[in-house]
Design a protein that fits this description.
Elements lengths: L2 H17 L29 H20 L26 E8 L8 E14 L2 E14 L2 E16 L2 E6 L4 H9 L16 E4 L4 E6 L5 E5 L1
Antiparallel strand pairs: 1-2, 2-3, 3-4, 4-5, 6-7, 7-8
Helix pairs in contact: 1-2
Amino acid sequence: MSTSRARAARKATARRLLRTGVLACAGVLAGCAAAPPMQPRAAPAASAGGASDRLLDTWEQRLAAYIDGPGFGDPGVLAQLPLLRTSAVPRPSQIVFAATDIDASAPERDGYDVVGLLIGKAEHAGEAHYVFVVGAIERNDYRPSAVTDIRLVVMTPRQGALVWQTGRADPQALARYLGRVAPAAAPRFPATEDRFTLTPCADAICAVELVSGARWTVGF
């Protein structure tokens, strides 16, 4: 493929991904304003491991395609995504990448939206690891119905490729995170009041949501 055709293909990929729900607010890689107000509510138990794993795989594939397309393989392209702004609550700026309408019969009708919040970079063994908290939101009748899973996902650029590590489903952490929210609140992830941060732990990458105390881990 010629250089011009390759560039055109990358641009087409970027446009397609943006149409299907790439959302971002430059934060860890570049400064910006706050994320929009969102409130999750308590939901049923997390979806079955196999189905949830598949949703996360789809999210990883779409993020990798975005980085490989307009970013030419550079994760710094995340800082160039459209900004989301709100004056509701002051908070550190962050990057959000969403893969929407997974398994949907029609756009926004049903299926799942999977949203990853980049909470920082961890250094280990001389490599930089991009750490996301990723939540899956089920939709029914054109409305979000439940947050079904939340996990840590680590993306590591290595020798021209992206290597992924995904934590296990943790129903207890999910219940603790969602249990602090009023049942009548619409299910959303991330929420305006969320305060995710990396926390030290041995031979792993760990994150805690400071308001609820919920904690997630992914091993190296």
